[in-house]
Predict the structure.
Amino acid sequence: MMKAVVTVMLKTGVLDPQGKAIGQALHGLGFGNVGEVRMGKVIEFELAEADPAKAKAQAEDMARKLLANTVIEGFKVEII
Amino acid sequence: MMKAVVTVMLKTGVLDPQGKAIGQALHGLGFGNVGEVRMGKVIEFELAEADPAKAKAQAEDMARKLLANTVIEGFKVEII
Amino acid sequence: MAKDVNQALAREFGLSADEYARVLDIMGRTPSLTELGIFSVMWSEHCSYKSSRVWLKTLPTTAPWVIHGPGENAGVVDIGEGLAAIFKMESHNHPSFIEPYQGAATGVGGILRDVFTMGARPIANLNALRFGDPKLPRTKRIVDGVVRGIGGYGNCVGVPTVGGEINFHPAYNGNPLVNAMTVGIAARDKIFLSAAAGIGNPVVYVGSKTGRDGIHGATMASAEFGKDSEEKRPTVQVGDPFTEKLLIEACLELMATDAIVAIQDMGAAGLTSSSVEMAGKGGVGIELDLDAVPQRETHMTAYEMMLSESQERMLIVVKPERREMAQAIFEKWDLDFAVIGHLTDTGRIVVKHNGTVEADIPLDPLAEQAPLYHRPIAETPKRPSLGPVVDTAGLGAALETLIACPDLASRSWVWDQYDSTVGGQTVKRPGASDAAIVKLEGRARALALTTDCTPRYVLADPEAGGAQAVAEAWRNITATGARPLAITDNMNFANPEKPEIMGQFAAAIRGMAAACVALDFPVVSGNVSLYNETEGRPILPTPAIGGLGVLEDAAQAVGVALTPGLDLVLVGSTAGWLGQSLWLREIAGREDGPPPPVDLAAERFNGDFVRGQILQGHVRACHDCSDGGLLVAIAEMTMAGTAGARLLPGPAGVAPHAFWFGEDQGRYILAVPDAAAVLQAAAFAGVPAIRLGESNAGDLTLPDGTTMSVAALRSANERFFRAWMDEPGQA
Amino acid sequence: MKAAIVVFPGINRDRDMAIALEKCSGRTPRMVWHKETDLEGVDLVVIPGGFSYGDYLRCGAMAAQSPVMGAIRAHAARGGHILGVCNGFQILTEAGLLPGALLRNANLRFLSMDCHLRVERADTDFTSRYQTGAVFRSPMAHGDGNYFADDATLERLEGENHVAFRYVTLTGEPTASANRNGSARNIAGIYSANLRILGLMPHPEDLVDPLMGGTDGKPLFDGISAALSDTLAA
Ligand SMILES: Nc1ncnc2c1ncn2[C@@H]1O[C@H](COP(=O)(O)OP(=O)(O)O)[C@@H](O)[C@H]1O
Ligand SMILES: [Mg+2]
C-alpha cells in the first residue's frame, strides 16, 4: 500500500485569479511581505501497489488522463 | 526570500465530495487499485523573510486567519 | 464511548430533569446511550416543537385547495390542471453562523429533500436572509459565505433561485438568519407520504454514506449560542449538491413506478427521526440493522449512526417485489442502496448493531409523551404614538439616502450569483416583479413566489407585524396578477423560556392567523427556529413568510419595470404613517413609534381590485408600496424600467414627507395607459385611488420640482453591495 | 434534423435545451445517457449545460472521460455537428475537441445575468440566421467561463476566423466591462477547424420564448435546424 500525492498547479503564464485574490487579502491582513501567490490542488490517495516506481508511473498516468488539464496545468507526483 | 507552501485539506471525518467523485472516476478509468481519495488546496508564495522559523510562524498565522477554514480544514506549512 | 447514562448526561444532551424522569418512566429502566440519544433528539425543540406546538395549532391550515397542510414533509396545494405545488421553508441559522458557506448550502439541500421526498420536481428556490450590522467585518464574511453557499448548492442541483429578501440589523450580529424555501410540482394524485405500512416490508436506505457528521445538530439548533459556540464547530456538515442532483433524479425515476410505500428524507437527527416518524405515523414497528448502513467511516457506533446528520440520504419503504428494480435505479445513478431493516408489528423501534440490541423503545410514548410546554407569556407593551416629525431633509435628498441604504439597496449583487434561469421557465427573474414568476413546463400556467417579513414592525408590535408579513406576501403575489393560495412560514425567535420572547411568538401567530383568515391564505407548512440569541442578545422576532400564488396564463403577469407614456395610479389610502418607517430610521435617526396598522378588510379589497385590473389587461406595471413608502416604490419602478416620471403634489392635509415616505399598508402603484378608466373602476368598487403623475422618457421629477436622473438613482441604488463586497479596502 | 442531447450525471440544462430544440426544429431530440455508445443517425449532438460530476476537480474533466465520448469523437471524425453549451463547452475543451480551457471567472464569483454577444461570422451552419456583427442578448450562468488559450492558439483562432461569439456592449464594443468573466479577447464561443463544432458559454436556449423575455437565442437553433434538415421545417 502506497500513498500518492499529486499536486496540480496552473502553468506559469496562465493567470491565477484565485492566487491573486489571496495575495491581496493577505496584504490586507497586514502580511506585507508576501510576494506572488499561486494556488493549486492537491489530490491524495492510497494505491494498492507495492513497487514505488510502478505506483509513481500509475499516478502520473492518472494525472495526465484526469487529474490535470495539461493545456493549463502542470503536475508533480510524490509517493510516500 | 523564502518560499512557503501551505497545504489545506479537509479534516478527517469531514465529507469530501470532490475526493469521492475523483475516486469513482479513477475507478471508471480502470485504476481499480485506488483507495480513498481526498482533495485539498495548495497555496504557494514567496515571503520576504530571512529566518525560516519566523517565515513558518507567519505562514501558519496566514493559514489560520485566511487560507484554511479551520472549522472543517486542517493545514500544513512547509518552508523551502 | 463508555459513558454512564444518568441525569447529568441527559442534561448534556439537552433533556431537563423532568424530561429524563419521563424517559425512565417510559423505558422502565436506565436507557442505553443510543436510546438516550434517540429521546434527546426526538424531544429537542427542533423535532418536537415543544415550546411552539400549542401556538402553531391555532394557525388556519385549510382551504378547498389545500391537499396536505402542516404535518407532512412539505405543504401541498392544488394549482389546477391536475397538478399540485409542494413547498416549504426551513432555517439553517446556527450552522450558517458557524460556517456560512456550508451552513447555507446544506440548508438549501435539506429543504430540497423535504420537497422532492413528496414526489415533486423542485422548480424554484427562494431565500430569506437576515444579517448583522454591515460595518462589522464578520457580517461581510457571513454574507459572502451565505450567498456563495446558496448559489453553490442551488446552481449545481439546477433549481433556479428566483427570489428572497435580505435585511440588516445589529440584532443579528451574532445570529444571522438563513431561511431557504423550495417549491416543487407533482401530479395531484401522485403525492408521496411518509407513513410506513406493510408488516415485513423492507426499509431501504439510499443516497450518500453515513459519517460522523453533525451529531447532535438537532439539539444544537435548539440551544442558545454562548461563548463556547466555537467549540461546537466540528458538527458542521459539508454539502454535496452533485449527489443531491443524482438523488433527485433517482427518486423521481423510482416515483414514476409503483414501488414506494412511504418515503422520508433524513433531515435533522437523520436516521432516528426518519425511522421513528415513518413508523410512528404508520402505526407500525420498525427494526433496523445498522450493520447494513452504508458507512463512510470505520468503527461507527450505533449511537453515532442513529444521530448522524450526514446529508443527501433518504429512507424508503418499498414493496418487497419491487426491491430489485428500485436497487437498479439507484445503482444506475451511482448511489448507495441498502436494505437496513423491515417493518414489524411490535410498535417499537429496535436497533441492532454487531449482533446486540442497542435500542428498543416503544414508539407511541416516544411521540405522545413528548414534552409540550405552555410557556409563560409577557405581552409586548404597545409603543406610544410618534407625534409630529418634522422634515429637515427634503424629498430628493431623503430619496437618495433611502435607496442607497443597506435595507433598500439593489440586491442584484446577490441574485447575480444565483442561477435564476435554469429550467427555462423563469418568466420574471429577481428584481423584475414583486413575486417571482415561474411557468410550469409545457403549460401556460405559472406560479408566483415571494418571501416577506418586516422584523422591525414585529419587534414594535408582534401582532401587527405578524399580520403585516402575511399581508405583504399576499400583496406581492397580487401585484403580479396571480391569485395567492397559501403560505409556508419560518418562525425565527429568541429564547422561548423568556416570557417576553414567548409573548412575541404568541402575538405574531395571532396576527398571522388573522391575516391568513382574512386573506384566505392558509399556512400549509413551516418551521420554527428558537433560541436565536447570542450571549443573551435576542434577534428581532422574524416570522418569515413564503407565499405561493397561481396565474392561469403566465403571459398575464406584470412586473415592476416602468415604460414611458403611462399614468401612475396609487391604489389604497395614505395617512402618512411614519412610525417604524425606514424614513424615520435613516433620515430622522429614530427607530420608534408603532408600526403601520394593517386593515385586513381594506387589504383584501384593494388587492382584489388590483388583481382584477391586471387580469383585465389594464395594467402595464405594478409595484406594492412597502419599505420606504411611495416615493421609493416609484423610484424602484423607474430604475427597473426604461422611464422617468413626473409626480403631482400629494393631497393637502398630509405633510409631503409623510405622504411620500410613510409606510401605510395595502397600497399599490399601477402604471396604466388610461388613468381615468382605472380611477372610475376604483370609484365604482369603492377602492381609494388617486393619480400620482405620469411616466416619461426622461428624469424623475418630484412634486417639489427636484429633478433626479434615473441613471444616477440606479448607480446610487447599486452601490452598497458592490462597494462593500467587491472593492478592496472595505471592512 | 435528428438531434441528440447527451446527459451526464449532474447536467441540468438538458430540459431547457430539449425545449429549445423542439421549438425550433419541430422534432423531439433524443436524450442519450452518458453510458450509451451509439450515436448512429444523429445529425447534431448537443452537450448541454449544468454541473456534470458536480464540476468537482475541474469543470467537464470527468465527463470528458465518459463512455459516450468515444461515440462523440467518432461523430466529430465523420464531420458531424456538435454544439456544447456552458458545461458542454467545458467538456469539449477537456476532451480536446475544441482548443483552450475555461478557467475560474476573473472575479471569482458565479455570474448569472444577461450578456450581449457579437456574431463574428454568419456563414456557418449555426449562425446563418444572424448577420455578421449582429449583437444579441443571452442569459449566462457559470462560475468557470474565463476562456484561456495560449497566444499561438489565440492567433490561430483569430487568423482562421474560428471565434464564434464575443462578449460586447449593447452597441457591439468588446470592452473589458462587457467581458465579465475575463475571457481572452472577449471570446464567448469558438468553432472547430471544420466549423461543425461550436462551443459557447452563454445560454441562448434560455431565450427562445417572448415569455421568458425575448427570442434572441432562437436564430441559433432555427439556423442549425434548417442547415441540418432534409425537409426544411421552417
Ligand atoms: N436573498 C435573495 N435572493 C434572491 N433574490 C432576492 C433576495 N433578496 C431579495 N431578492 C429579490 O430582490 C427583489 C426585491 O426584494 P424586496 O426588497 O424584499 O422586495 P419587496 O419589498 O417588494 O418584497 C425581489 O425580486 C426579491 O425576490
Ligand atoms: Mg418581498
Q: What stands out?
A: Helices of chain B lie at 17-28, 52-67. Chain B has one domain: 2-79.
